[in-house]
Amino acid sequence: MIRVSLLALVCIVALGTTGCGGSKPKPVTKPQYEQQLQRLGQELVDAGSQVGQHLDISTFNEDVSNLQDHLRSASKELKGVQPPPDARAPNERLAQGFDDLADALDPVKDARRESLPQAAKAFRKANRSAPARQGRVAVRQLQRRGYAVGQMAGL
User: Which of 108, 151, 104 has its CA nearest to residue 130?
Assistant: First the structure.
């Protein structure tokens, strides 16, 4: 009986220190959030500028995968913060848009296996997709609310 109670106590303490379920988003100030947006925007621009630099199928598709990884990482990072109240809704839309855009880029890799012109066509389609538009709308909302978004504005 004591062993069971001790085990239960250890489990409760472990759950209490690691948190039950998901972690809460970390509150950030406007300047901290702007800095994060600017850094993420620069990282995405850098990753995106590599797409099309290499024409062979393997490296081209690695570059697309790298961009997808950066989009998913940016999405996860944005979901992990709690910006000021006026930025919360656009932040959620931006994070979701990045995640969905990463998925929308999968056909680009498939198209590159066919030909470079097909890959370019698929990339343009992804750039005009609903997730891409959702991200651009969220960035414009942040700008209208006075947030300096840096390179994010050009995505």
Answer: 104
For residue 39, give both structure tokens: 């850094």
Per-residue pLDDT reduced to its tens digit, 42-65: 999 999 999 989 999 999 999 999
Domain ranges, residue 73: 28-154
Taking residues 64-80, report their average pLDDT: 97
Check if the beta carbon of residue 96 is closer than 8 Å to that of residue 104.
Answer: no
**pTM of the full predicted structure?**
0.82
Nearest to 37 by CA among 142, 118, 128: 142
Q: d(Cα 67, Cα 72) in Å, to the nearest integer?
A: 9
Distance CA 110, CA 137 (A): 28
Q: How many domains does the chain have?
A: 1
